[in-house]
Amino acid sequence: MSDDRPRVDITKVDDELTRRQLLRRAATGAIVLVYGGFGVRKAVAGAPQFAHRELKGTLRILQWSHFVPAYDGWFDNQYTKRWGQANDTDVIVDHVNQADLPGRVAAEAAAGKGHDLVALLAPAPQYEDRVIDHKEIVQEVRKKRGKMIDVCYRSSYNPKTKKFHGFPDFYAPDPINYRTDLWSQVGSKPTTWDQVLKAAPKLRAGGHPIGIGMSNEIDSNMALMALMMCFGSFIQNGKARVTLNTKATRDALKFGRALFKNGMTNEIFAWTAASNNQGMLAGHLSLALNAISIPRSAEASNPDLAKTIGLLPIPSGPHGRLGLEHVMHTYMIWKFAANKKMAVKFLAELELKYRGAFEASKFYNFASFPRSVQNVSVRLARDPHTPKGKYKILQTISQKYTKNVGYPGYSNAAIGEIFDTFLIPQMFAEVAQGKRTPDDAARDYQRRIGTVFEKWRKRGKI
C-alpha cells in the first residue's frame, strides 16, 4: 500500500456510532445462516434483515471449515457479529472444505472479483500481484504486540519485492499423534525415524499401520517435506536455489520406500486431508503426523480412545528434528476487493486480541504475534483432559521445531506452486511404488522443480 493510505485506529469503535444506534443494531443483529451453491455455508454478522440500517458497507470473507468446529461457531456467531456491530458493517463469511479452497481462490483471482478477504491453509505468494501489500496490517499489530514469529514472517514476506503477500493470523504446530497403548505393546516410542521404521512391521502386523500419506493433499505435503528436512533434504537453499538432487534426498526417499513396504498400506496413495484423522479415530492407525484435530475429535466422540493418543515432536532424523507448521492460515486482501479499508481493520483487530481465537480453537490456532495471547504455557497446562498436561508439548514444538514451507529460504511463488501441485508427495509415491529409483526421482524432480523456480525468477518474484 502507498504511504498516503488513510491510517486506521483499530483500537476504537467509530466515534459517529451513537449508543442508540449500537443498541438498535445489537437488537436486530442475529446471525443468519444460509447456504449458497456448491455447498458453501454462509454466516452473516451485523443486521442483514434490518430494513432501515445505516451501515457503512459489507465485508465478505472466504475461508475453510475449521478442523475444530467450535472455532467456526465462535468466529461466525460471536466474533464477527460483535465486530460487525461495532464497525457498522455486515460481515459475511463463506466456508468451504479446505480441499476446495485453492480452486475457489484461483477462480476469484482469474475473474478479478469475489470476496474482500480470502484465506488459505498455506501461503500463496504466487498471487502477490493480485493482492495488496499487507505491510500496513503487520506494522499496526507490531506496534502493539512486538514481532511476528519467524515462521509466519518467512511465510508471508517476499525479500525480493519487499512485500507482504499475505497476513497469517495463525499457524498450527504439527505434532506426532500416536497410540501410546499400541507403541507400549511393541516396546518402543516414536522419538526417532529409525524407531518408527523398526516398530512399523510389528504395528502393521497387529492391524495398526503407520499413517503418513503420499497423496495429493495438504497433510502428505507437510509430513513428507518435514521428513525430508529431518534427513537434511531441502527443496531450496537460503538464496532460493534448488537443492533437491542430493544424497540426503535420496536417503529420505529410500526411507519412505522402506516405511511403506514394512509398515503402511496402499491406502496412503489415495488419501484426502481427512484420511489420517479418520484412520486414527477409527482405531486403525498407530501413528499420524497431524495437528491436534485428532485428539480433540476423539475427546468429543470417544473419550477412552482420546486417553491413548499421545503427542510428541516430529521424530529426529540424521539431520536432527525439523518440522513444519501443519497449517499456516493466511489471509489475502484482493486488489479488486470492494472494502479494502475494513478488511485491513478487521485483520489487525483480529490479531491484536487473539486469545478468543486460541481458546475457541482449543489450542489449534497459535497466534502469529506471540504476545497476542499471553501465558500460552499456562493455558495449555490447564486443559482438563487425560493425561493432564498433554497439550503442553505444543509450546515446545512451536518454539523449537516449527519451520516454514521452503525453509531454509522464504516461502516464495515457486514454493507455493510446488506445494499446490503436490510434487513432493508424487515423488515419494513413485519411489515407494517402485516406479522410480531414488536416484532417478531426485534428478528428475530437481529438473522439474528447477523449471518452476526459473519461471518465477524471470517474473522477478524470487
Explain the overall architecture.
By secondary structure, the protein is of the alpha/beta class. Helices cover 43% and strands 14% of the residues. The chain has helices at 19-28, 69-86, 101-111, 135-145, 150-156, 180-185, 193-205, 218-230, 247-263, 275-281, 293-301, 303-306, 340-352, 355-360, 376-381, 393-400, 413-420, 423-432, 438-458, and strands spanning 32-35, 41-45, 57-64, 89-96, 117-120, 157-158, 163-164, 167-172, 176-179, 210-211, 287-289, 309-312, 323-324, 327-333, 366-367, 402-403. The strands form four sheets. The chain has an eight-stranded mixed sheet with strand order 1-2-4-3-5-14-8-15, sandwiched between helices. Strands 10-11-9-12 form a four-stranded mixed sheet, sandwiched between helices. A two-stranded antiparallel sheet has the order 6-7. A hairpin with a 5-residue loop joins strand 1 and strand 2. It is globular, with a radius of gyration of 22 Å. It starts with 18 loop residues before the first helix and ends with a helix. The relative contact order is 0.16.
